[in-house]
Amino acid sequence: MLASRSSARFFVSIRAVQENGGPIRLIDIIRSVPQLSRNYFQSPSRKALFRGIHTNPSLMSEVIRSNSLSSTNLHKAHLTFNQIEPPTLVVWNHKIRGFSQSDNPVEAIHMYTRMHHQGITGNNLTLIFLFKACARISDVVFGQKIHVHALKLGFESYLYISNALIHMYWMCGQLGFAQKTFDEMVDRDLVSWNSLICGYSQCNKYKEVLRLFYAMREANIKADAVTMVKVILACSHLSDWEVADSMVEYIKENNVEIDVYLGNTLIDIYRRRSLVDLAQSVFDQMRERNIVSWNALIMGYAKVGNLTAARKLFDNMPKRDVISWTAMITSYSQASQFADAVKLFQEMMAAKVRPDKFTVTSVLSACAHLGKLDVGWAVHDYICKHGVEVDIYVGNSLIDMYCKCGLVEKALEVFQAMKDKDSVSWTSVISGLAVNGFADSALNLFSQMLREGVWPTHGTFVGILLACAHVGFVNEGLEYFESMEKVHGLVPEMKHYGCVVDLLSRSGNIDKAYEFIKKMPVAPDVVVWRILLSACKLHGNVALAEIVTRKLLELDPCDSGNYVLLSNTYAGADRWDDAIKMRELMEDGDVQKPSGCSSIEIGCHGSKLLP
Q: Cα dist. 369→176, 342, 363, 504 in Å?
């Protein structure tokens, strides 16, 4: 009884569709009788009826089209397609289109080859889908074969075919063919221009992007947001800010809609130029924003040093990603607000956001400056357990952190485990060894560095000279200093001269240090003179201390340290009247002596103790 009623509804639905004057489509029948029971199709006679519908290409075309456009249902479209006898061109196109935009676009080419072997000639839609597939897999050889087919079929003048060709050629890195196709077009639309502009932009030919934009304006083609994104990016890469500003005027004058991509591009270009007020203005005008919009503006405020505004934006973000956290942590670290950087990193970990190599590099730098070994060690442990990429920068940051926290052995472990090392890696370890009292190891490592063909830097020689100063290797240190320019072509900088003065002064050769200063090819700065003055105090050389102090007062009369050092030198020589006079001279000159303080860590918080 149930089967009879269902059968009646089935055929009534067919008749209803016919009476409405439309073609009979399976999709219409199924929609008309949603209550068709599964049992109805189980009987042999009815199975035969349904199988007949399944093999009918005109009835199944809609089913294949909808399934082909769904990545999850593409396999269903393929199963249905294989039952059709024979598939029409429309059905073939549905399948080729589906594969062209799937995760496996090469199947579109296989489908076309199969169709071609069955004697079916494609139409303009077939070729457009194939060009898209070739573009996605960068198969320019097959793309050119299809281009020949298009010429044979007389489609060379079709606008959409030419646009698809331009896109395919530049995606395959063949800008010459893309330009040739563009030049041969009788009619061009905005898509034609944008396709070629995108191609030149993708291949980093930014002057060509601007050339095309100007030609496009002469052709009276109005640009859209896609065009302007590429043009603004070209200006940014060329650092042509005058042209960039003229492009912004074009956007305003022509009412180009600022979508999220154009808005983000404008924010970024203003960020690079430190024009954060203009970046904020674009941000406020955007109807739609994404996480990139927020991140770009945060980095803009951080660049100009306005961390308060950057943090306010960060706190107001509807959603944050690892870039958001890293941008804020890096901003704190670069502004020497290391405690804030570490605290925010701890909040990031509590929020279950996985840091990347850029995050850990910044937080390790902060730990190094604060001496927070516990946090740095925890970060290293996290890196090892969670597979964070350890590139040269992360490795160097770990070395620097361990050296500054006094764990040179751990720094050496990291250094030896690094697959790739640069001069910074070697310099960090050498300097760390020198500062922590392992001068011999530092000098041995420097020799190994030279044997392995790694070229030393100015920083490397600072570490070497420090090492020599710590162990009193005066002659060796002077030889290393001489080798900088003679052997390695490195012109000594002020810090190297300061290291030599320190080397000579520590060993008691104060007069030699003074002679060295007088022979310097550059005028010594206050740091160099102050190193010598400290040595004079240590060794009780009052006469030289007076000479050096006069030099320091000429260069920096407001630094209380200059007065205090000479006063203490007098006191050490029992010249108390002179010591008092220096103190009075400091008071008469209204030279302020900064208050001293000590810093201790209680639990996880740092505290300063004032005297």
A: 53, 11, 10, 29
The length of the chain is 611
The amino acid sitting at 350 is A
pLDDT tens-digit series, residues 356-366? 999 999 999 99
Q: Which of 233, 202, 234, 196 is nearest to 215 (CA)?
A: 196
- Answer positive or negative: Cα dihedral of 265, 270, 274, 276: negative
Helix/strand/coil for 598: strand
| CA quadruple 176, 182, 183, 184: dihedral sign | positive
Distance CA 303, CA 453 (A): 37
Handedness of CA 137, 139, 142, 147 (dihedral sign): positive
Report the C-alpha gap between 330 and 365 in whole angstroms. 9
Token pair of 175 as six digits:
């800008």
Q: Average the pLDDT over each of 2-11, 125-134, 281-290, 364-373 and give the range with the smallest value.
A: 2-11
pLDDT at 262: 97
pLDDT at 611 over 50: no
Single-letter code of the amino acid located at 120: I
Three-state DSSP class for residue 602? strand
Tokens for 149, please give them: 């087919």
Q: Is 0.90 topped by the overall pTM?
A: no
Q: Which residue has the tokens 């001069």?
A: 423
Q: What angle do CA 383, 386, 387 make, to 5 degrees?
A: 75
Which residues is 607 bridged to in the sheet? 600
Cα dihedral sign, 149-152-157-158: negative
Q: What is the pLDDT of residues 375-394, one digit of tens each?
A: 999 999 999 998 888 899 99
Q: Tell me how far apart the alpha carbons of residues 167 and 226 are, in angstroms, rounded to a whole number.
A: 14
H or E segment to which residue 601 belongs = strand 598-602
Check if the beta carbon of residue 30 is closer than 8 Å to that of residue 65.
no
Query: Could you give the 3-state DSSP secondary structure of residue 592?
Result: coil
- Token pair 């310099």 is at which residue? 427
What's the DSSP call for residue 599?
E
Q: Which residue, among 255, 283, 286, 253, has the nearest Cα to 268 in the 3D structure? A: 283
What does R_g of the chain's alpha carbons equal in angstroms? 37
